[in-house]
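Hello again, I could really use a second opinion on something today. I've been staring at a protein lately and its backbone has me curious. Please have a think about how the structure follows from the sequence. I owe you a coffee for this, so here goes:
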Amino acid sequence: MEMAVAAAIASGLSAVSQIQQGKYQQAMYNLQAKQAELEGRQNALNYSNQALQVLERQRKMSATLVARGAAGGIDPFTGSPMTVDRWNAFKAGEEYNLGMENADMAIAGGLAKSQSLQAAGKQAMKQAYIGAATTIAMGVYSYGQAAGGPASTAAPGNAAGYGTFSNVGGVQVENLMSTTPRLG
């Protein structure tokens, strides 16, 4: 009997331990999810900064073109200087848009990774609960085996022993899985 109680206590402690482990795993996944989200935002800031630097370089090139054209005695707002300036502005606009798209994708990627990690954390908790329930069920079964003596006894009024009852943890459970017909 003492062995049965010890087995029941051990299975209870094991179940609690499994749930606690699941909580720790979920917390770890949640921290990783926050980190992934922050990394996505950091990457987005970097891409946005690069996009703004492109516009800054284009503004400086435009000012240089105007200054050189005026210093050379030509109108910087017509002809070749203006064509070069417009081409530079067009290319800078393309690079800026690309940088902003990369920023959007970095945020989306960080959020997707974050959601994936959060789902993994929820799954870890589900598995912990399932493992704990299985451990408790096995503990109850073991307790019933150790405390209740034989695993089954013949049904009352049934000398042949068909349709048996099991005593699991003090609860009588009828064995209906018998392939032999019950007589009584």
